[in-house]
Write a structure and sequence with these properties.
alpha/beta; Aspartate Aminotransferase, domain 1; Aspartate Aminotransferase, domain 2; 17% strand; globular
Amino acid sequence: MDERSWAERDAAVVWHGFTDMAAYLGHCPVVVERAEGHELIGTDGRRYLDAISSLWVNTMGHRVPELDQAVRDQLELVAHSTLLGHGNRAVVELAEALAGVVPVHDPHFLFASDGASAVEQALKLAFQFWALQGVRGRTTYLAFGAAYHGDTVGALSLGADDGFGAGLFSPLRFPVLRAPGFDDPACFDVACRMVDANAGRLAAVVVEPLVQGAAGMQMAAPEGFVALADACRAADVLLVHDEVATGFGRTGTLFATEQCGRRARPDLLCLGKGITGGYLPMAVTVAAGRIFDAFTGAGAAFAHGHSYGGNSLAAAVALRHLRLLGERDVLANVAARSAQLAALLAERVAPLAGAGAARVKGLMCGVDVAAGTGRAVCDRAVAAGVLLRPIGDTVIVVPPLTITAAEIERIVDVLAGAIGQRSAPR
């Protein structure tokens, strides 16, 4: 038997993204062996409440019997078959079900394996859409400050200039027009003026509806997205909503775009993370009929495709997950637990000297902590059995949508304790 700990074995061979591997072993890494409900169980037998939903993908907990069975049933049929020039029953059924709920007019679905790929597809769809119509010069994109859209080169180009390695990879990124981030109350006024002034060169505007998650949960009111959509329509510029993080109930409605009203509906919608309930990698770019028709009318194929796009196992569990969200009335629980979380943070965390602002939308939450303490606060929380993760000095709390009232209490109490270890009450 290997006498090293699992964490040591991990560090010896596994390279973790967005992780300083030299400091990895010093930050309480959990090596997961199994899971039950909302808890992960490490190789040491310790239990950890998964308060980050395994990086925002898990919606209903782990080992959900109905989702487990959906995978087993699909395994009896086929695990994967290509969608390039052929179809698959599981994917057709999923697309039909999604067509009835996505906030996109006459939707068509292009599947991929992760959120960044869904964004890349949207960028290329917008670019080729204009090219097919013989429109020259529509090659630029408008994005927002503090945005995050993924780590592929196109998605990274849309992202903030100073975030998640963007500066390092700046020679690879293409330039975009940049409106202010959601922390600026004038961001949508500025963005609308930019759309009007640059209509002839813009292929699309790309925005995260309601919440800029990786910006530390910066939030904006629905009215701004309506104004942005109106400006795009007036200038005949395509609008892309990146709901990779906010989709599938995370903000309190099935899609965040719904809270902005029909006028805010995008031409292209990017989905991922929660689509399979956290079971298997899957993402999708949803195109409005206007976009799809431009390709079929021109007799031109979209110059893009993925080997595992539309994986049958992922499609089967995604379909069962979509139905299960309704069967269990999960959105009602999101509303109740969101209100509880906000109230408890105000009562038990806000008075602490080491705590700053808390932002909550549905079950997306960011709590600012004292400068330089984000990592330490999360390490102390993990040591206390609650898995949290920082973005800089913002502690991210993104529990499963089926989290219980008792578990919300536990999360807040552990977070307060982790902050308060070195902080006196105000």
